[in-house]
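Input record, target 12 of the design panel.
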């Protein structure tokens, strides 16, 4: 199933009481999505189940952010991130995401759980600028080196501020 979604400028704003929950398998295919996930994504449950989670990836999101996320999850650590997602109708919605590896009783990763809530507007405003700079860096570097280039830029920004990624994300 492949959808050609054209982004537009219509923003959906999460309510303070909303929690978007989804689960994926090891390859990032959706195995569960709650009612709020279905509502904001605009897809039906049938369309979501089995689809790659990047189905809702907005083109304004730098690939370097997702590389950082997957590198963190590979270490069996949870990751926090502000993410701009895209719905089936092309509208977008920002989330503050907590992604956690789902471990079996022997400590093996069997999937991933993501819980997203309404983000702070000040954080969205700050990260919109950072993400734009990362996208410019990805474009400059070219497809092969895009992730590493934008992640290097993010690392430099963090070093200049004297913060780790988690410290920044949890502080804004």
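The sequence produced for target 12 reads:
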């Amino acid at each position: 199933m492949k959808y050609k979604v054209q982004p537009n400028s219509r923003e959906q704003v999460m309510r303070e009481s909303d929690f978007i929950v989804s689960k994926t398998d090891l390859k990032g295919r959706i195995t569960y999505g709650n009612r709020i996930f279905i509502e904001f994504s605009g897809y039906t449950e049938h369309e979501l189940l089995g689809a790659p989670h990047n189905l809702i990836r907005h083109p304004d999101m730098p690939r370097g952010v997702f590389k950082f996320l997957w590198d963190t999850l590979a270490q069996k650590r949870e990751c926090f991130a502000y993410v701009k997602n895209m719905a089936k109708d092309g509208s977008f919605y920002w989330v503050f995401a907590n992604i956690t590896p789902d471990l079996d009783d022997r400590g093996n990763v069997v999937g991933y759980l993501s819980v997203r809530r309404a983000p702070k507007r000040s954080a969205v405003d700050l990260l919109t600028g950072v993400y734009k700079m990362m996208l410019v860096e990805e474009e400059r570097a070219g497809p092969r080196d895009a992730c590493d280039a934008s992640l290097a830029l993010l690392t430099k920004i963090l070093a200049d501020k004297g913060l780790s990624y988690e410290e920044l994300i949890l502080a804004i």
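The chain has a mean pLDDT of 95.
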